Amino acid sequence: MKMDTRHSIHREHDHAQMDAASHDQHSGNNQHAGHDKHAGHSPGMFKQRFFVCLGLTLPIIYLSPMFEHWFRYQAIQFPGVNWITPILATIIYFYGGWVFLKGAWYEFRGKIGMMTLVALAITVSFVYSVAVTLGLKGDSFYWELATLVDVMLLGHWMEMASVQGASRALEHLADLVPSIAHKQVNGQIEDVAVSALIEGDRILIRPGEQVPIDGEVVEGVSSVNEAFLTGESRPVTKREHDETVAGSVNGEGALTIKVTRTGDKTTLSQIMRLVEEAQASKSQYQNLADRLAYWLTLIAIGVSALTFVVWLSVGTGGLTFAINRAVSVLVITCPHALGLAIPLVIINATSMSAKHGVLVRNREAFERAKNIKTIAFDKTGTLTEGQFGVQHTYTEGMSEDNALVIAASLESLSEHPLGKAIVTEANHRKNQLKKVTEFQAVPGQGVEGTIDGQQYRVGRPEWVAELKLQLSASLQAGLKEIESRGESAIVLFNDHQALAVFGLADRVRENARKAIDKLHEMGIETVIITGDAEVVAKTVAADLKIDRYYARVLPKDKAALIKRLKADKPTAFVGDGINDAPALSESDLGIAIGAGTNVAIESADLVLVKSDLLDVAYALKLATAAYNKMIQNLFWATGYNVIGIPLAAGIAYPLGIVLSPAVGALFMTISTVVVSINAMLLRRMKS
Question: Do 163 and 182 belong to one domain?
């Protein structure tokens, strides 16, 4: 591709697949110009031109005197046969070569690049050959011109097909949303276009159907598969007040949902926008590739001109040989592979991360992720779920399950968040709750009621003391242990004695321990930054084996602390993207917990859709792997020229080794294939 459009290669495919306006709105002027240069190009176009030109090339090769000599045959002769080759070559030059001629025209108005080299090569070949046909002394090389155009078209076809395959994440996401929804209107169901829905509309999702738009369940219970969003294959149970997202698949039950987001506000649209922006944004390594391609182009033109002058002055082979060498240099130096080296890696990396539930908002920051040595985590909502759970239970005179059933039965009638945590734990253990009579909430203390004829109370430890009841030694020890960990304590007691003490704390996220362990294996230091009390921070840090913690840090002070940390080592910050916006922006790499549907977090560089902290390690590993692939591709795309250019210039001619333009084009195409395959091998990376 053209040098100043390296960052637009994937968008060329998208142009053929999508509305171009969706790309232009995220692009600068240069990007837009680069995009226009290849407007309308697609793998299908290059494929068609390749096969047409290949068909026209076969008669040219058959009628070529060189091939007659090589393979010892006599081509059929008939009146006008000498005009067949020039006519077919002219068609190939204009039909097959037009894309390169047009590309060179655009490059001359900006920065010259690969299209200029190809256009120069085929134009010099064509003009010289036509001149020979019209009477100039020398040997034409129509077959070299034809095969050169064929190989270049084949290379572009392969390139765009590779980019197309890597870019299909957006296309597949777009296919997830049905176009029709079952809207409830005056008690009746009407099929309407999804685009016609507005916030507040109620729609029916039948069993097995895809959810067409984001909404909130107002009626029904069903399991919903959200694998496209979270990567988690297990269905998620949805009931009243739960959120559903467009593209998920309903299970066995019918759901009625109220539309909450439409158009560009839906979760799926936001995901597509983030992936698209990441793939369209400029890369620092892409900038390097652009500069290399530019200088490679200048070197190619200079060496080609020098080669022509030297061979012409030497006199070996005459004008034909000199032009042949010059054209070979132009062709073999084409920065085709260099143009593909970075974009294809980036497209694969961003597509892989999106499929894994990691959305890349800032590609440059993603590239910096390979250098991260410290990761700081917010605690509440990041390392923990932001919801209380029962962590420890101490009992006296009854079993743990029995104490939990009594406490949960009472708390099931309460709205207190600590009470809800006890009910959740009982439900998790599948305990059957008991009937409560004479229930009463005591403000500032807890709740009380009668179960099986016995009065019970659940509440603050101070309530026990106020009622002149005593905690046994074992329960006192348990209460002390709970307080030392910074947990909240709730006591179950009857009219005579305390029966159980429950320690409640913010639940640590699933996979948090595995994530921290994996980061330590990668040699990355972990830190907690929280506004909670020191005892809470210390407990969570010890539980997860986190290296350091900073407690009682106000939201406004988090950014300053991140600034101090990154002055020592490259530092990433993982937060919920709401209160942590300044810290996310200040860090070298801001990673936001997406909480499943809240993906448009503008302050972060990466968004974890699944809120799975293991994805932090995956993102860093992918960034490192992508960087390695970029460096490998840059090395190969430029390194082969060290050997290729001298050979094309004819340095090995005394040894009988001469590269024709077609062979040079073949070598250039092989380098492109190697770069493409190497980029695709990124997909073999394990999480």
Answer: no
Question: Sign (positive/negative) of CA torsion 448, 449, 452, 453?
Answer: positive
The owner of tokens 């499929």 is 355
Residues 6+ apart with CB under 8 A from 276: 14, 22, 23, 26, 170
Domain ends where: 208, 239, 273? Answer: 273
pLDDT band at 488 (very low <50, low <70, confident <90, very high): confident
Cα dist. 140→2, 64, 298, 433, 666 in Å? Answer: 29, 10, 27, 94, 20
Closest listed residue to residue 323, CA positions, set 179, 455, 175, 141: 141
Which is higher by pLDDT, 381 or 467?
467
Whether residue 219 contacts residue 273, with contact meaning beta carbons closer than 8 Å, is answered with: no
Residue 395 placed within a domain = yes
Query: Residue 257 pairs with which residues in a beta bridge?
Result: 203, 217
Tokens 């190697």: give the residue. Answer: 674
- Residues 6 or more apart whose CB falls under 8 angstroms from that of 174 comprise 18, 272
Residues known to be catalytic:
378
Q: Residue 96: is its pLDDT beyond 60?
A: yes
Shared-domain flag, residues 47 and 129:
yes
What's the count of helices (H) and strands (E) in the chain, helices before strands? 27, 22
Q: Which range (176-180, 317-321, 462-466, 565-569) has the least confidence?
A: 176-180
DSSP 8-state code for residue 134: T
429 and 500, same domain (yes or no): yes
Choice between 443 and 546, residue whose per-residue pLDDT is larger:
546
Are residues 266 and 330 both part of a single domain? no
Average pLDDT, the chain: 80
Greater confidence, 151 or 314? 314
Provide the pLDDT for residue 20: 30
User: Does residue 319 share a domain with residue 213?
Assistant: no
Asked if residues 526 and 516 have their Cβ atoms less than 8 Å apart, the reply is yes
Residue 551 is part of a domain; what is its CATH number?
A: 3.40.50.1000
DSSP label of 653: G
DSSP character for 210?
Answer: B
Mean pLDDT of 502-527: 90
- Residue 143 belongs to some domain of the structure: yes
Q: Which H or E element spans position 548?
A: strand 548-550
pLDDT at 523 over 90: yes
Residue carrying the six token digits 């709205």: 415
224 with 102, same domain: the answer is no
What sections of 396-521 are H helices per DSSP?
Answer: 400-411, 417-428, 461-466, 473-484, 512-521
Total residue count of the chain as it appears in this document: 687
Q: Cβ distance 220 to 237 under 8 Å?
A: no
Q: Do 610 and 553 belong together in one domain?
A: yes
CA atoms within 13 A on the CB side of 570: 15
Clarify whether residues 68 and 26 are in a common domain.
yes
**Range of the structural domain that residue 108 is part of:** 3-169+282-351+629-682
Furthest CA-CA distance within the chain: 123
**Strand pairing category for 525-529 and 374-378:** parallel
